[in-house]
Write a structure and sequence with these properties.
The chain folds into 2 domains: 7-213, Ribonuclease Z/Hydroxyacylglutathione hydrolase-like (Metallo-beta-lactamase, Chain A, 4-Layer Sandwich), CATH 3.60.15; 222-291, Winged helix-like DNA-binding domain superfamily/Winged helix DNA-binding domain (Arc Repressor Mutant, subunit A, Orthogonal Bundle), CATH 1.10.10.10. The protein contains 6 helices and 14 strands. It has helices at residues 58-67, 89-96, 186-197, 215-240, 245-252, 261-277, and strands spanning 16-17, 22-26, 39-44, 48-51, 73-78, 100-102, 127-128, 134-137, 140-146, 155-159, 164-168, 203-206, 281-283, 289-291. The strands form 3 sheets. It has a 7-stranded mixed β-sheet, covered by helices on one side.
Length: 292
């Protein structure tokens, strides 16, 4: 992973040119989960696409419009519908008259405590992209790559002319992604990571964190990290017997900001569900988990 970013080097509301076809505008929404904020990308020269317009913040929407330099916006694309990614799509479309294109809306069954508080329920795309679908303008082509795992509707977008991949939250430049069941799925996530490992992209542009200039090495390392975490869980259960997730988090995430322990618990649960599907662990009625 690249060196940590100094927030002073990531000013909000200003277009930063990253390549002949790619510019970036940082949204003013830093947090323990978004790092320095959501990065909105502007792709193209004569006409452009906007990827992950971000939160519905008037100043950020104005900054996106300014970053286009008056060029027509052909498409507003969303990698997924977490509230730091897609809510600005509709107000931006209202200003510039561009279609909203990208991931499918996400509707979750309300069969228990709701788990979709972080999702943008108002997201309404004009066109839904599926794996392999393309959006193009003058001198640029974006191809959708289905990458479920972080969310079931997650897409990455490949910029074919530059062998670049906009990875949303599937691969970030500063941290691993949170996989939060029931929508987040560790099995799907690992399959999607393998898809990326099998590709030959030259650079990743994530929604959070710096660009990644050795993407296959990063993906390989992230997959190894998940395997190590799985091993930690299995060893914990072997050593301690049936256990609850908070006890696992307390041991396995020592030194991690306590504000992230809730998210860590969701990822541990995702690992346990995956282990259950593979016959290696099983849930008990009291909320604890045991080895099989």
């Amino acid at each position: 992973m690249n060196a940590p970013i100094d927030p002073a080097d990531m000013p909000t509301g200003i277009r930063m040119t990253l390549s002949p076809l790619v510019g970036r505008v940082l949204a003013p929404n830093p947090s323990p989960f978004t790092y320095t904020g959501t990065q909105t990308y502007v792709v193209g020269t004569s006409d452009v696409a906007v990827i992950d317009p971000g939160p519905d913040e008037a100043n950020h929407i104005a900054a996106i419009v300014a970053a286009t330099g008056g060029r027509p916006i052909r498409a507003i694309l969303c990698t997924h519908t977490h509230r730091d990614h897609s809510p600005a799509a509709a107000p931006l479309a209202a200003v510039v008259g561009a279609p909203i294109i990208g991931c499918a809306p996400l509707t979750m069954e309300d069969d228990g405590p709701r788990a979709d508080a972080a999702f943008d329920a108002a997201y309404r795309p004009d066109r839904i992209l599926t794996d392999g679908d393309q959006v193009a303008g003058e001198g640029w082509t974006l191809q959708a790559l289905a990458t479920p795992g972080h969310t079931s509707n997650h897409l990455c977008f490949a910029l074919l002319e530059e062998k670049a991949l906009f990875t949303g939250d599937h691969v970030m430049g500063w941290s691993t992604s949170v996989i939060s069941p029931p929508d987040g799925d560790m099995t799907d996530y690992m399959r999607s990571m393998q898809r990326l490992l099998d590709r030959d992209d030259a650079i990743y542009y994530p929604a959070h964190g710096d660009a990644v200039d050795n993407p296959r090495r990063l993906v390989r390392g992230m997959m190894g990290h998940r395997k190590q975490r799985e091993g930690q869980i299995l060893r914990f259960l072997e050593r301690n017997g049936a256990s609850a997730i908070p006890a696992m988090v307390a041991e396995m995430y020592k030194g991690v900001d306590s504000r992230l322990h809730g998210a860590a618990g969701r990822s541990v649960l995702a690992h346990l569900i995956d282990l259950d599907q593979r016959g290696k662990a099983a849930p008990l009625d009291d909320g604890r988990w045991r080895l099989c």
